[in-house]
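Box S1 | Example of a co-folding query
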Amino acid sequence: NWTSGMLKMFTLLTYKLLVIPTNFLVRSQFALVVVHMQLVLQFAKDEGITLGGAHSAQVLLARDTRPTGEYLLDVATKGISAIVGSVALDMGILTTPQLHWMVRNKNRGLKASEADYFTQITESFRHLLELTPDDKGIDELNEKLIVDGANGIGGLKLEQIKPNLARLDILVRNSGKEGEGILNERCGADFVQKEKVLPLGFGPNDVGVRCASFDGDADRLVYFHVTSPSKTSVDLVDGDKILSLFVLFIREQLDIINGKDNKGLLPTRFGVVQTAYANGASTEFLKNLGLEVVFTSTGVKYLHKKALEYDIGVYFEANGHGTVLFNDDFVSRLESLTARLSEAAGSPQKQAALRLLATSQLINQAVGDAISGMLLVEAVLQHKRWSFQNWCDLYTDLPSKQLKVKVKDRTAIVTTDAERKVCQPSGLQELIDKEVVNYSHGRCFVRPSGTEDVVRVYAEASTVEAAESLAKSVARHVERILGFC
Ligand SMILES: CC(=O)N[C@H]1[C@@H](OP(=O)(O)O)O[C@H](CO)[C@@H](O)[C@@H]1O
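Box S1 (continued) | Returned holo structure for GN1
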């Protein structure tokens, strides 16, 4: 259908525009215009969209603060305008998730400006805080929050809305202001999650303060704590633990409305979606809550699609990219239930239903969004009166190790079972299985990267040394069978 097709096309184009690397600029402008034309045309073909028909297709474009942005915007605009029936709209300087939110809202006939985005997330955040119960005991949560903006656009946007956020004292570092530092360099969510060390600008004075880290275009979020004044290592709260926090909160509201048997006023299909990179301890934690946990291939396009199958679907990659999706019919049922419960305004069920509605407004349902995700984390911590440590203690991550192996042809590896098993080349999976059985809590898989010319090896075990040793042994098998290069 036209709307969903256009939504996907916008998403593809906006994504492409924001991720085209600088070295692309050495190519001629003409070549880039052609690339954009080809993208639009291929997408229209794949999705069965008639261009040049009665409706013109609007393609929303935005850019970040890098100097290459204006040039890329210009060529993208020319590429789009070269196609009959498509119009390029420049939405300005935005985070990736803001742009996706605008596309989604436009396709739904809703208000879609940046001011509307800010109003929606600040208002729903305020609403969620107002719905915080007052019977949860001592407030262990510190209002202070330091955010590493990765020198990207997210920090600048957060600075804009900071004054409108109650009960939060936010300090933005690596804020993206000119001269403060280079995008994603020794800072940002990817750096903190992979290296598990402090980003630039953080140090001994931050011990004990809750910290969050965005990535450069603000679609990933992780949290961390500085453990001691003498160490650069951090206590990390990754995407899996953010997911677990959201799941606990939503489940609590559903239990209030439906009772533990899910047979009450609003029977709900609640699904949790992870990838093979989710820490095994998080999956066990979620399964022990009695939840349906499903796995997809790596990449948010797979997770998002799966999460759409539920009334409420929560998905996250361990790297901090994820969100919560509420099915439209479910939201209608939730709204009617809230209206029906209006007689008993202060009833726990009504309060829980209102919390779910506010959550559906606060979280960006187009794509993972560091700003809206962070506000939901903050609202849930306030709701639970939880300190950072309470959150960390939900479960203990199993030690893990990731390695990259350069091989002659990474596509020689074919996987199945959400990339957790190798089916080609034959014999490799058996070798992995033989290694894994030697390790307590051992788990290991290999897959060809979709973004780099490498095979990724992931291993988990009960100690850091064991995880490293397992990863290395399996990497050696991969090198031997596929040919190291
Ligand atoms: C292990 C890992 O972090 N993989 C990343 C990486 O994909 P690969 O296919 O593993 O290269 O880039 C993807 C796009 O950013 C992201 O969605 C995914 O999580």
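Residues 277, 298-300, 317, 319, 321, 449-452, 456 surround GN1 (CB under 6 Å). Residues 400-482 form a domain with the TATA-Binding Protein fold (CATH 3.30.310.50).
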